[in-house]
Design brief:
It contains 3 helices and 4 strands; from the N terminus they run βααβββα. A hairpin with a 2-residue loop joins β2 (55-61) and β3 (64-73). It is α+β, with helices and mostly antiparallel strands. It has a 4-stranded antiparallel β-sheet with strand order 1-2-3-4. The radius of gyration is 13 Å and the shape is globular.
Length: 103
């Protein structure tokens, strides 16, 4: 298993992992609440990766995405020391150290 920055071409596979993670009922979005599209996620990945103090990372094994971690920094100068973090791991990969590796 290794971790790398997500790229726009990963969007469709990431959507699959996000959808699966949301099915757990423990994510910010409830199951089926969010509709994601490949084009909009691709654009979001690029914007996060190009923003200062932000990043979109994925954990992979044999070209399969096991989980993701997003870090989005604040834009205002007074809160630029803060960031939001979102992490999700596919149900088939939970309990195997994916989240730890992403952090």
């Amino acid at each position: 298993m290794f971790v790398r920055n997500a790229i726009d071409k990963d969007a469709l596979k990431i959507i699959s992992v996000m959808t699966d993670a949301e099915e757990s009922g423990f994510m910010l979005f409830a199951p089926g609440e969010r509709r994601m599209e490949e084009a909009s996620l691709s654009k979001f990945i690029n914007s996060i990766n190009n923003a200062p103090k932000s990043g979109f990372f994925i954990a992979l094994e044999n070209e399969e995405i096991l989980g993701y971690l997003m870090i989005k920094s604040e834009n205002l100068s007074r809160t630029s020391h803060r960031a939001s973090i979102a992490i999700g791991v596919h149900s088939n990969s939970r309990g195997k150290g994916v989240g730890t590796k992403l952090f």
